[in-house]
User: Fold these one by one.
Assistant:
Number 1:
Amino acid sequence: MKDVLKYNKLFDNYKKLLKEDEIKIFSDYYEEDLSMQEIADNYGISKAAVGKRIKTVEEKLNNYEDSLNIVKNNEILEKLLSENDIDKIKETIGIILKWWVIIITRSLLIWLLFLFTLENNYKVLYDVYIQYTRSKWYEQ
């Protein structure tokens, strides 16, 4: 039962990051409480394929939460709403905001590295093209 609650929370927060077929199968299994065999029959796939897709979605959801901590932060914020200590509230919100700054900075660095790599790859391709056009093979 604990896994069902966990995965329903994760699914509610991250389902937009999943493929349509993953959403349907996962929803049928966790929200509609259909058996793997019933899902397999509904979609015309094997029971093993259903199990594999559910396992894949569970892994994706866990990875999203490990990276983004949206569910964890929501739970922390819900607890804060019942706190009466304003200093504790400020401290906890500060920790969450610092964490988000780290995540955003890391994401930007990854994108910059990706763009730099793309630019260099194009340069390499361009250099290969220039070398090829100047070579004897091109002239033949």
Number 2:
Amino acid sequence: MQILYDRIRKDGIVRAGNVLKVDRFLNHQMDIHLFQEIGKEFKRRFEGEEINKILTIEASGIGIACIVAEYFDVPVVFAKKTKTKNIAGEVYTTKVESFTHGTVYDIIVSKEFLGKGDKVLVIDDFLAKGKALDGLTTLIQDSGAELVGAGIVIEKGFQDGGKRIRDKGIRPVQSLISPDVLSLLLPAPSEKPGYFPLRPPCPLNKLHTRLHWNGGMPESFPQRQYLLLKYGQMHLQARPAPFLAGILLPL
């Protein structure tokens, strides 16, 4: 999804551990125009599916799910992380491990809002280890509802969540930013921890990537291609090489 890719490239920030910060537009400050485009795209991808409910998890998935639900004209249910006083009656509950926060927590949905006959589309902002999606899937199974599919805004390919979820038979899983594209935006796993803002693009096999100096070329580069710096511009020389020592790519 080009508009989302461009926005990540412009405003995304990568922190140590390959944590991609998109809080300028996705999961803290929210760009509603971008959300509308995301909603349209998920509607296109799940066109023809019978969906009567959207399920997400608090908190960052809620905003996206609400805009997506507007295009499907269905209600949103979000799994809460704590049982508050306003949840009366019986609930479905399971445990979820958070990769970002390094914690394990309970998620809860009232049995009043999820049950047999519901055809559910799961919406979330990230798919990393897949633990949140695992938890939401468990709630759906426990309720007797049917999982129609999952819509993910950004899927991280360097973690095994997407593959593991698909191997379990949870399909379709639709990611607006797929792992092969995201790998060109993120630093190589071998980089030292640091704070790396994403930078303007350089052509690479018809895709774009942020380039940076790490004493060699990122491992994700196809055919281990390297760059030459000429007249202040970055040019791609398409022949294999381990690295080009001594060339400092400007940040």
Number 3:
Amino acid sequence: MTKRLPSQLATDETPGLALLGDEVAAMATTQAALLDDLRFEHMRNVEDAVWEFVAECWLDRRNNHVPMFIAQHEIKPFDDVCYVPVEFLTVPSETEVFGIRLLPVDDERIPTVAGDWFGREKPIGSFAAVDVQGTDYRRMAERARRVASHALRVLRIALREHRSIANPQLRFRLGRAHAFAGRFTGWQEREDVAYDLTFAGDLPAVAGSQPVSTMPAEPSTDVGRKADLALRWLERAWFANEPLIGFLYLFFALEALLGDKREGLKAHGLAFRQAMLGHLVTGMFSHPNETWFLYDQVRSGAVHGEDARSLSVYGASCVSPISDSGYALEPNRDWRCTYGCVPGYEPCRRA
């Protein structure tokens, strides 16, 4: 990797540096370590700061540049309280639960914010007060929301033991906004946000030209029923709040079409059938290794108890399971055509 030196350090004789792979990896590790350190999480251009540090170390190897870097960028972490509205969960008085404090909406400690985006009206029933420390309010808010989300998640599962509580009563959730006692405010769009769509212009023609437009509401064949099942999994995938869940739903759709429950290990057969079906439908051939890897390492790992947080990295980096196009399991996106290609389905089933 070749990278140009910062303008204040570059010269005609030395305009840039050539870095080895392990040096690039060390820079990335340093950047991540800085953002994980509360003293440096406030840094906005951490990549530029680290690169300037590396350049200075290379140009002047006699001196230790670490103390100067720390003195320039370090800020002492401060404490604050983040208040996040909780919808559909009402408390009559302050209640401490699983590391957070739930406050009634009329509690005087909740900051008063101009505008109606940080309101106290229903469905808001309480506010989660989370003690947080750091040097960047955006990251502090993210940590506070994670702590509050975990507390509500545990609370939902724990309250299932109460026989008089119905599942719909456990759908309480965090609101969009947040505010700190120091009066810093912000908001985060809800994962299940919906926007209005005007169905006009060329959209009806686009929808009618897709293979799925011929699918009946009541399928009468085995292929039709499997395609309908896959369609339902696809819909769930697009509206899943978590990328990993959406990724699994996409694989369930693929398995509904091409899976064979008689098989023991399914990855090989599924990858082969997907590649063959893609060739039959599009005339192109995509290597089945990616499907095999994703099935074996991500789908099976998640289903059989692996850490979903690490698996979601595979999903996001390899296939972007919930992409703008809605079809990202296969790079060529050929398997979407199966919903209107019944003749192409059976040959792959027999393969």
